[in-house]
Amino acid sequence: MSFDTKAFRHALGCFPTGVAVVTATAEAEPIGITVNSFTSVSLDPPLVLWCLQKNSNRYRVFTQAPAFTISILATEHEGVSSRLAKAGEHSLHGVALVPTKVGPPALADSLAAFECMREAIHEGGDHAILVGRVLRFARSEAGAPLVFHQGRYSALSRVG
After folding, report:
1. Cα distances (angstroms) measured from residue 51 to each of 15, 103, 110, 157
2. What phi and psi, each to the nearest 5 degrees, are found at residue 8?
3. Which residue of 30, 53, 69, 136 is surrounded by the most CB atoms within 10 Å?
4. What is the C-alpha to C-alpha distance for residues 43 and 99, in angstroms, rounded to an integer?
5. What is the Cα Rg of the chain in Å?
6. Which of 109, 115, 125, 57 is nearest to 85 (CA)?
7. Calpha distance 139→5 (Å, rounded)
8. CA 104, CA 22: separation in Å to the nearest integer?
9. What secondary structure letter does DSSP report for 40?
């Protein structure tokens, strides 16, 4: 029996996800990558995770970084999300950033930002599962989240 990987990917795309940018520091310069695999793991201790494809040219930096910052994107971040989702694109040059205490910056005007120390890395097929312990976080009261659904960006509207 053959497994249709392309059809599987399309089926997974039926599940709408939020979009985030994870930042780390490489050779004193911050870099970023767009992810839609972010989720909470635990409230006590405060843990989150995200997944990174093993063949990414950013794999070594993110798996060796002791700290990373996760910025939850708003609709106005679609351009930076698209840019950092591409292979080879990782520079944060020209992106509005805010400093963090763990080192890697957060994206300015993100809906939320989580400053994390790397807690663990687990194998997950062709991806690594990176678990971070949240040391600090910030949240905005305004903005609509950027959403990815069936291969395209979308937005949710705030009701009430």
Report:
1. 16, 20, 20, 27
2. -60, -45
3. 69
4. 24
5. 15
6. 57
7. 37
8. 9
9. E
C-alpha distances in angstroms, 152 versus 5, 126, 129, 146?
19, 23, 24, 10
Record: fold of 5-150: Pnp Oxidase; Chain A (2.30.110)
pTM more than 0.90: yes
DSSP symbol at 91:
B
Q: Which amino acid is at 56?
A: S
Predicted confidence pLDDT, tens digits, the chain (160 residues): 688 988 988 898 888 889 999 999 988 889 999 999 999 999 999 999 999 999 999 999 999 999 999 999 999 999 999 999 998 879 999 999 999 999 999 999 999 999 999 999 999 999 999 999 999 999 998 888 999 988 899 877 656 5
Residue of 153, 146, 23 lying closest to 91 (CA atoms): 23
- 159 sits in the region (left: phi over 0; alpha: psi -120 to 50; else beta) called beta
CA distances from 117 to 65, 93, 139 (A): 9, 24, 19
Q: Which residues pair with 107 in a beta bridge?
A: 97
pLDDT at 157: 63
